[in-house]
Design goal:
Elements: H1 2-25, H2 35-38, H3 46-53, H4 56-68, E1 72-73, H5 74-85, H6 95-115, E2 119-122, E3 127-130, H7 152-173, H8 181-207
Antiparallel strand pairs: 1-3, 2-3
């Protein structure tokens, strides 16, 4: 009887040892990361990258998100970009200036940037954050010293005042000379405004909002 109990105890001990060994052998192995998971996301093709960066407003979005370092609302972005574009403080912008930027971003620019994963745009909530392809674009941007849009409204005012002064001077001089000074003053003003308009249009084609309309 003692031998039987001793045999049973030995058998139970061996069984416990076997179970413990099996538990050690069947511990979950650490998860292996596939090579595909370890590889960084493919860089955005150059034509798509420059297609995004060619527009000043989209560059402004990237600059704002870079500074914000996190998710932001569409309203915040629209207000700041409107302030930049109009050379004002945020508190000084008008509702129409804000709306113009808001609509352009919502309908055109943000969906275009979201399509190529430069940003993640939650349209229902109006939340924007950087996407997986954003980092590759910053090497083409000097986010610390980015060229801003020229203050066209100031140039327009200065050019108008200069034109008025030239015309006024011509009117004063006309009685004292036989030269067509008024005609010359008018022609000079027209030439100056035409040149200014061409420069403005060329800048907008290169950097501005030529594609603010939503794509079909």
């Amino acid at each position: 009887m003692a031998q039987t109990m001793s045999g049973a105890s030995s058998s139970d001990g061996a069984l416990d040892a076997d179970i413990a060994e099996e538990e050690l052998d069947t511990e979950p192995a650490p998860e292996e990361t596939s090579e595909a998971d370890e590889q960084p996301p493919e860089a955005l093709p150059l034509d798509q990258a420059f297609g995004i960066l060619k527009n000043q407003r989209r560059r402004n979005v990237l600059e704002y998100l870079y500074e914000a370092d996190g998710a932001v609302s569409l309203s915040e972005v629209a207000e700041q970009i409107a302030a930049w574009e109009n050379d004002k403080e945020v508190r000084q912008i008008t509702s129409s200036e804000r709306k113009r930027v808001y609509v352009g971003l919502y309908q055109c620019h943000l969906p275009k940037m979201d399509d190529v994963d430069v940003i993640a745009f939650n349209k229902p909530r109006g939340i924007i954050e950087l996407g997986k392809n954003a980092e590759g674009l910053y090497k083409y941007l000097d986010v610390d010293d980015e060229a801003e849009e020229p203050p066209w409204h100031r140039y327009s005012v200065a050019l108008s005042l200069a034109g008025a002064l030239v015309l006024g001077a011509a009117l004063l001089v006309r009685p004292m000379t036989a030269l067509p000074v008024v005609d010359l003053a008018v022609a000079t003003s027209i030439l100056a405004f035409s040149t200014y308009s061409l420069v403005n249009i060329n800048w907008l084609r290169t950097n501005g909002d030529e594609d603010d309309t939503p794509e079909a």
